Amino acid sequence: MSTANYGDIIEVTAPADFHVHLRDGELSRLVTPHVHKGGFYLAYVMPNLVPPITTTEMAIEYKKRLKEYSGSSKVEFLMTLYLSDALHPNDVKNWKAAGIVGVKSYPRGVTTNSDEGIESYDKYDELFKAMEVHGIVLNLHGEIPSDHSKNICVLNAEERFLPVLANLANKYPKLRIVLEHATTAAAINAVKVCGDNVACTITAHHLSLTVDDWAGQSFHFCKPVAKFPDDRRALQEAIKSGNKKFFLGSDSAPHPSLSKSTATSTSGCAAGVYTSPILLPLVAHLLDSFGAIDRLADFTSNFGRGFYQIPADSDAPKVFVEKVQGVSVQAEYSSEGKTVVPFWANRQIEWQIVNIKE
């Protein structure tokens, strides 16, 4: 079926979110349980804390905290390291045993907590070669910093990055590379023409938003920003086509509500859209809206697990979602003085989780 009727139920085995921000401290205590609340059993965790996660020891300790906060022993946390000079090729062979699956690249200054990001990939040649050997994934935030002298800004920063993606894919053909949170038709096309070592995550919110939705609406503002209607359509068509290169990475990025809603004359609001607590129903709603509900299991589990070579066990949890008349999204979530506002707060979603078999 391409669209669903009310009462239809779809089963997804062990939904997997291959890009999520779970923060630290009290904010992490609040949002980490929302991975399971949103229907997911695998969280691929971003390393851009302050300070960033750059060592095996830091990743192990962070994972320990996340498991403590999770509220479900069934959720699997896959850890990443922040690409920086602190990473050494000789250490790569030990990463998988420590639960480290990937390395995340942030161009300097383009998004939240990216001040320690990179300026050039050339010096990481030996690191990338070691990652090829040991099966560690390279995750790319696919933008270059704004440079007005070169006519580069948030609207074309992703497209200007794409030659870098092509170069890395050709230079390291055995290195699995993920272009994270694509927002443009150009990015979709670039991933399609790369070899099988390149895949791409797509967020739920970029399937919904365009420029008009975040211009003047801080709770829809994220990096990379949503682009034009034709770009949104290209993301939707990539999923609808069933191309296994494209799978879910929510980029769910919580910020305290005050930092999302407030800008000053010298600083903007925080960049990030928070989808974790409603993620599987939201994705079902969106895919159903453009005739791709039959791709739900592939997009939210099968394709990502296939690329990362992490198949679901035969006894893995199964989550069932049902199309309903409408469920209101909670206005906010609060704990210990921290408050976050989810995407589509107070709006209606036409899908809900009705059963989980663990």
Offer a concise description of the structure.
It comes from Suillus discolor. The relative contact order is 0.17.
Q: Could you describe the 3D structure shown?
A:
The protein is of the alpha/beta class and 358 residues long. 29% of the residues lie in helices and 20% in strands. It contains eleven helices and 13 strands. An eight-stranded parallel beta sheet has the order 2-3-4-5-6-7-8-9, with helices on both faces. Strands 1-10-13 form a three-stranded antiparallel beta sheet, covered by helices on one side. Helix 5 runs parallel beside helix 6. The longest helix is centred in the first third of the chain and has 15 residues, at 56-70. The chain starts with 8 loop residues before the first strand and ends with a strand.
What composes the largest sheet?
A: 8 strands, parallel
Q: What are the secondary-structure elements, in order, as H or E? A: EEHHEHEEHEHEHEHHEHHHEEEE
Structural class: alpha/beta
Q: What share of the residues does DSSP label as strand, in percent? A: 15-25%
Structural Rg: 19 Å
Please give the number of β-strands: 13
Low-confidence stretches: none
Query: What is the tally of helical segments?
Result: 11
Mean pLDDT: 95
